[in-house]
Design a protein that fits this description.
The chain has 218 residues and is α/β, with parallel strands linked by helices. The chain has 10 helices and 6 strands, in the order βαααααβαβαβαβαβα.
């Protein structure tokens, strides 16, 4: 496995930010729809960007509700601003070894900017591809990054914490790597997709980088 570029998912992979997403949506939907949404109900809305979700739920108030959501998201981020321990060291080592880095996420541009500002991770990534209001399309966004780099799909890995992340990587032909070190990761679903590698801790991921990207399945 000769990797020249790595593309990362953000929520649940680099940052423990899913609780921030849930909190932001919960307070927004409580204000504008008058009822309490559970984490499960909110998670079921994911796919489109925040703008897309709010356009569907609040077509006449989506702009106002989006601004409220962004403010709530920003405020809630203070508790979850730091990346998973070891992530910054891993990204720094990859940069040191001239591995190109990008993010492909379903998040909207507004929340992506907030997350990168709070976490300080923006400095590591040359390309950041955010989501669409029309729904999840990670394969197209991964392919866009590969094309920008003028690499072959097999020169690149995509790393994420959900089965969809693995499926998206496989659809494009990149190496599919599971990152299940977060407590929100879909561990069994990720493994069921048969990715090239699955890392249960950031320490395992860092060891793999230090060893120079060995081949084989974990």
């Amino acid at each position: 496995m000769k990797i020249r570029g790595i593309i990362f998912d953000l929520d649940g992979t680099l940052l423990n930010s899913l609780p921030v997403c849930y909190s932001g949506f919960r307070s927004t939907l409580r204000k504008f729809l008058g009822r309490e949404y559970s984490d499960t109900e909110i998670h079921a809305l994911f796919g489109p960007s925040e703008e897309g979700v709010l356009k569907k739920l609040l077509p006449n108030q989506w702009e106002e509700s989006l601004q409220y959501y962004l403010a709530a998201y920003d405020s809630a981020h203070t508790e979850y601003a730091k990346p998973f321990p070891g992530v910054e060291a891993a990204l720094a080592l990859l940069k040191e070894r001239n591995v190109r880095l990008a993010i492909v996420s379903g998040k909207g541009a507004g929340t992506m900017a907030i997350s990168l500002r709070h976490s300080g991770l923006g400095k590591f990534f040359e390309v950041v591809q955010t989501g669409s209001e029309h729904g999840a399309d990670k394969p197209a966004h991964i392919k866009k990054v590969i094309d920008l780099w003028h690499y072959r799909p097999e020169d690149v890995a995509y790393i994420g914490d959900t089965a969809y992340d693995i499926q998206a990587a496989q659809a494009v032909g990149t190496a599919a790597i599971g990152a299940v070190w977060g407590n929100t990761a879909s561990t069994q679903q990720v493994k069921a997709m048969n990715p090239e590698l699955v890392f249960s801790s950031v320490e395992e991921f860092l060891t793999w980088i230090e060893a120079g990207f060995p081949e084989g399945k974990s």
